[in-house]
Design goal:
Strand content: 15-25%
Largest sheet: 4 strands, antiparallel
Order of helices and strands: HHEEEEEEHEEHHHEHHEEH
CATH topology of the largest domain: Jelly Rolls
Oligomer: single chain
Helix content: 40-55%
């Protein structure tokens, strides 16, 4: 069932498109719901859609040869994914799992691909987003080289807050288990560390959100790094 163009206009990626182009895409788009922990994309054959997250939260993961889950990055509402395979037609490189009840807008690759390559503003936005994601994954690998759990978790929070220095609100923040997957620690270690950070006024929970004092977080990260042996 086609969607309304107003829905597509909610996504920053599609804002440069002319109304008639959005109307054509809307005729081919669809919305699919996913339950929490349901697999949205699997690693393997190239997806046949560009996926845009309308509601909920997602986590991209992969698995080691031993079957251990490794977190790669989070996907927030308004963002999109599966663009790499859309560009080169190669297989999907990671799994994408819903971390909450989720709705995803699906745009068929056959419809959105020529629009993307034929619209300079859209091509530039996708290129910029890919660069951001590559840099984020480089930071994620560097994070895993830190031996101090507190410093590792602080570094992950710095990534989530984009290095902000004021009170930064992380909407529908990842659970301790989801963070544990990202930083290769146990959930119990993450929980203990959060208790320490809360006691120091670095962060606080507000419903599903997390409010982080960026300046205090930076201080904790530096201090933790200085205690490493």
């Amino acid at each position: 069932m086609p969607v309304h163009t107003v829905l597509l206009q909610q996504f920053p990626l599609l804002k440069p498109l002319a109304p008639e182009v959005l109307e054509r895409l809307a005729q081919h788009a669809s919305v699919r719901p996913f339950a929490r922990r349901e697999m949205v994309l699997t690693k393997g054959p190239a997806p046949q859609h560009l996926c845009l997250l309308l509601e909920g939260s997602l986590q991209a993961v992969d698995f080691t040869l031993e079957g251990r889950e490794v977190g790669l990055y989070f996907i927030n509402p308004g963002d999109y994914f599966a663009e790499l395979s859309l560009i080169d037609g190669q297989p999907q490189t990671e799994f994408v799992i819903a971390t909450s009840p989720t709705q995803v807008v699906l745009l068929p690759a056959a419809e959105i691909r020529p629009v993307m390559f034929g619209t300079p503003a859209l091509a530039e936005a996708v290129s910029y987003r890919l660069a951001q994601r590559i840099r984020a994954q480089i930071s994620q690998r560097q994070l895993l080289s830190l031996s101090n759990p507190l410093q590792r978790i602080a570094a992950q929070l710095q990534i989530l807050t984009a290095g902000g220095t004021q009170n930064i609100r992380i909407l529908k923040a990842p659970t301790h288990q989801e963070l544990a997957i990202m930083v290769n620690l146990t959930r119990e270690t993450v929980t203990r560390t959060f208790q320490v950070l809360q006691a120091q006024g670095v962060l606080k929970r507000q419903g599903e959100d997390l409010v982080v004092d960026g300046e205090k977080l930076d201080q904790v990260a530096v201090k933790a790094g200085g205690t490493e042996k």
